């Protein structure tokens, strides 16, 4: 049997052990499902994503948007296009708009202010996912009504982080996440599973960090090698280990909102359904308009690139119901329930 208390208190040695084997998976998955039902219920929240720019100034070794990728057709949506797309998403009954892009300085503080102000008129929650911006920008956008900020830490191993992110450090990424938390954003972190050189201990560090941050949102997906990156020949992450990490994240941070990611569905046709059964409670349909949508190519084989918007949303709702869960109709804020676990001692 798994030692639930050791998982909840992020015992690093114990986590490393249970991550390194599939021997405990059945019990981990069952426990995660029970904890999800107890702490966040049976609702699955929809978040409509607008990937509004695939320009990026960064050089991350795993990402298809990296600045050095010359094989990518770059695009930027105008503020008017972004706002019109947000209106459509709101009309579809989705109560959260996710504004996601590469790290693109073309979108100035003022441009984002106008976009946020216009979208807030639609009676929706706004999640920003723009990478590392200035602390002052975070403050301004929060005051204008941005509700959440998603910025995955990708790996909590300082050495692995430095290898994958030339010129950047894990401590810098953590500083941004802690500032977002201090400003009152619902703050999202998360990581990839199956990175080259990643160990079970590294994955255990990810869970320790999620607990330490008290992450409001946790995005976990398999690493999928992109042919236009330096890691094109790497193996990539597997479904089972990724599901194990989603389940453990649910146990470690019981009230967090955890998506069954698009990447899960990209490596297995039932990947997102498994994610929902093993602890996830969010689905993020991609509602970027075409012709832009296929060019936000973080990794190859991405699903849902050419469906009509209404069909995509209906398909997502059907998927949620197919695993016995309920389509949420609210804003999907994190439930303010006391955690199962004891606080981490720093």
UniProtKB/TrEMBL annotation:
GO molecular function, one term: transferase activity
Any single GO BP term: sulfur compound biosynthetic process
Domain of life: Bacteria
Residue positions binding S-adenosyl-L-methionine: 154, 173
Domain Radical SAM core positions: 42-261
Record keywords, A-Z: 4Fe-4S, Iron, Iron-sulfur, Metal-binding, S-adenosyl-L-methionine
Binding site for [4Fe-4S] cluster: 56, 60, 63
Cofactor comment text: Binds 1 [4Fe-4S] cluster. The cluster is coordinated with 3 cysteines and an exchangeable S-adenosyl-L-methionine.
Cross-referenced InterPro entries: Aldolase_TIM, BATS_dom, Elp3/MiaA/NifB-like_rSAM, FeFe-hyd_HydE_rSAM, HydE/PylB-like, rSAM, rSAM_sf
Cofactor list: [4Fe-4S] cluster; [2Fe-2S] cluster
Binding site for (3R)-3-methyl-D-ornithine: 129
Record-given protein name: [FeFe] hydrogenase H-cluster radical SAM maturase HydE
């Amino acid at each position: 049997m798994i030692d639930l208390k050791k998982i909840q208190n992020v015992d690093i040695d114990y986590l490393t052990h249970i991550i390194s084997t599939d021997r405990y998976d059945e019990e981990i998955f069952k426990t995660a499902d029970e904890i999800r039902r107890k702490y966040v219920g049976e609702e699955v929240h929809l978040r409509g994503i607008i990937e509004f720019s695939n320009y990026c100034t960064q050089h991350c070794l795993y990402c298809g948007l990296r600045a050095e990728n010359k094989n990518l057709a770059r695009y930027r949506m105008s503020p008017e296009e972004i706002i019109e797309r947000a209106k459509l998403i709101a009309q579809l009954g989705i109560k959260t708009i996710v504004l996601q892009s590469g790290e693109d300085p073309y979108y100035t503080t003022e441009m984002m202010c106008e976009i946020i102000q216009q979208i807030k008129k639609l009676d929706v929650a706004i999640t920003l996912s723009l990478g590392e911006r200035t602390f002052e920008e975070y403050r301004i956008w929060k005051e204008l009504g941005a509700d959440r900020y998603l910025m995955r830490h990708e790996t909590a191993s300082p050495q692995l982080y430095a290898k994958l992110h030339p010129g950047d450090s894990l401590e810098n990424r953590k500083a941004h996440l802690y500032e977002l938390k201090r400003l009152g954003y619902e703050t999202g972190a998360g990581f990839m599973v199956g990175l080259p050189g990643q160990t079970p201990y590294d994955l255990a560090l990810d869970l320790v960090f999620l607990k330490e941050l008290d992450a409001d949102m946790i995005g976990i997906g398999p690493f999928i090698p992109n042919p236009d990156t330096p890691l094109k020949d790497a193996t990539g992450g597997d479904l089972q280990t990724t599901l194990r990490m989603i389940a453990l994240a649910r146990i470690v941070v019981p009230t967090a909102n955890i998506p069954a990611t698009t990447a899960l569905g990209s490596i297995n046709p039932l990947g997102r359904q498994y994610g929902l059964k093993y602890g996830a409670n969010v689905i993020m349909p991609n509602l970027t308009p075409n012709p832009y949508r296929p060019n936000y190519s973080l990794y190859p084989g991405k699903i849902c690139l050419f469906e009509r918007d209404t069909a995509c949303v209906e398909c997502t709702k059907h998927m949620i119901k197919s695993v016995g869960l309920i389509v949420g109709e609210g804003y999907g804020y994190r439930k303010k329930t006391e955690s199962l676990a004891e606080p981490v001692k720093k």
